[in-house]
């Protein structure tokens, strides 16, 4: 399997899993999916977990940025 196919499958599964997590509130669902993947493909498991972690990190960074911009705006600092 080519790396691009592996990454594509992992990315799609990560997107679907995060959507399911948002819908159900199951914050650790991705670990269960990762375990199921690991039973048959360690390579896909690693790519999937990386894709999930990247997306979760980006979400956290965006929340931080939104909070920080709101704080700056509320404080009346120039350029906020």
Written as H for each helix and E for each strand, in order along the chain, the element string is HHH
Per DSSP E runs of 2 or more residues, the count of β-strands stands at: 0
Largest sheet: number of strands, sense, barrel closure: none
Total domains: 1
Give the structural class: mainly alpha
Q: Which percent range fits the helix content?
A: over 70%
How many angstroms separate the termini? Answer: 48 Å
- Report the average pLDDT across residues: 94
Low-pLDDT stretches are none
* CA-based gyration radius: 17 Å
Overall geometry:
elongated
| Content of β-strand | under 5%
Number of helices: 3
Give a verbal description of the structure.
By secondary structure, the protein is mainly alpha-helical. The protein has one domain. The chain is 82% helix and 0% strand. The chain contains three helices and no strands. Helix 1 packs across helix 3 and helix 2 packs antiparallel against helix 3 (42-75). The longest helix is centred in the C-terminal third of the chain and has 34 residues, at 42-75. It is elongated and about 55 Å long. The relative contact order is 0.12.
Q: Could you give a quick summary of the protein structure above?
A:
The protein has 80 residues and is mostly helical. The chain has helices at 3-24, 29-38, 42-75. The protein is 82% helix and 0% strand.
């Amino acid at each position: 399997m080519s790396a691009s196919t592996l990454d594509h499958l992992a990315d799609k599964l990560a997107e679907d899993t995060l959507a399911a997590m948002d819908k159900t509130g199951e914050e650790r669902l991705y670990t269960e999916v990762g375990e199921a993947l690991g039973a048959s493909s360690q390579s896909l498991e690693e790519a999937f977990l990386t894709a999930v972690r990247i997306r979760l990190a980006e979400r956290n960074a965006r929340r931080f940025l939104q909070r920080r911009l709101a704080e700056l705006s509320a404080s009346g600092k120039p350029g906020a």
